[in-house]
Amino acid sequence: MFKVLLITLSLATINFTSEAKNPGQSVYSDAGEVIKMRVQGHRVACQPNGTQLCFSVQKGATIGMDSWEVLQQPIDGFTYEEGYTYDLIVKIEFQQGKTGSERFKYTLVEIISKVKEA
Question: Are residues 110 and 88 in contact, defined by beta-carbon separation less than 8 angstroms?
């Protein structure tokens, strides 16, 4: 039974990444949610008057819209290069016992595209 479940989850993940062009798609599992995320080509201040820089992102159905949100956590496994906009597949996991922005962990699954900003 466990092998069948594992194979089914693997196929669902493969199917999701192959159809990830639809920004509203996501996959849910007990391990977390897998979403499409766009990372803007320049970072922004995490807090007003702050010196730390954070990613400016769009998630899922908001990709391509005018609004961006500040992502205060790093994306594990993602090496960011200033001046490039990225489309990613990212896994989001809830972390027990954490509070605030630290309650979610972001992990890179796949880089869909990396485009130099004009």
Answer: yes
- Domain tally, the chain: 1
- Pairing verdict, β 75-76 and 104-116: parallel
Pair 106, 91: CB distance under 8 Å: yes
**Contact (Cβ atoms closer than 8 angstroms) between residue 43 and residue 54:** yes
Instruction: Count CB-CB contacts under 10 A for residue 23.
Output: 19
Contact residues for 36 (Cβ-Cβ < 8 A; gap 6+): 20, 23, 25, 26, 59, 60, 63, 87, 88, 89, 90, 112
CB 115 within 8 A of CB 85: yes
Domain that holds residue 26: 2-116
Please answer whether residues 36 and 63 qualify as being in contact, where contact means their C-beta atoms are separated by less than 8 angstroms: yes
Name the band, by pLDDT with cuts 50, 70 and 90, for residue 91. very high
pLDDT tens digits, one per residue of 52-69: 899 999 999 999 999 999
Which amino acid is located at 27 in the chain? V
